Amino acid sequence: MIVPFIDSVTATSVYLNPDFVMSLRPDPADPHRVTIIKLKDGETLRVIGEHTEVAEKLVLIPAV
Predict the structure, then answer these.
(1) More exposed terminus of the chain, fewer Cβ within 10 Å: N or C?
(2) CA–CA separation, 47 vs 57, rounded Å?
(3) Across the beta sheet with 34-39, what order do the strands follow?
(4) Closest Cα partner for 21 from 64, 61, 62, 58?
C-alpha cells in the first residue's frame, strides 16, 4: 500500500509505504499543520497534515 502526502517544504507529492515509517510527530514550528515523518532509512520528511490525521492515513492508529 502506498499513501500520498504533500511535502510541506516543496509542495510536491510524496508517496509513502507505511511499512517504512519509523515514527511521526508534530512539527514544533507548525504542530497543527505539519507532521515530521522519520523513515527506517533515516530520512526525515515534513508533510502537510496534523499528526493524528497523518497517522490515520498511514493506518498506524485506528480512526476514531
Answers:
(1) C
(2) 12
(3) 21-26, 34-39, 44-48
(4) 58
CA 27 vs CA 1, 2, 22, 64: distances in Å: 25, 22, 16, 22
Domain ranges for the chain, please list them: 3-58
- The whole-angstrom separation of Cα 12 and Cα 59 is 22
Quick one: which H or E segment has residue 57? helix 51-58
**Per-residue pLDDT tens for 6-46?**
999 999 999 999 999 999 999 999 999 999 999 999 999 99
Q: What is the pLDDT of residues 14-23, one digit of tens each?
A: 999 999 999 9
What are the grid coordinates assigned to 61, written together? 492508529
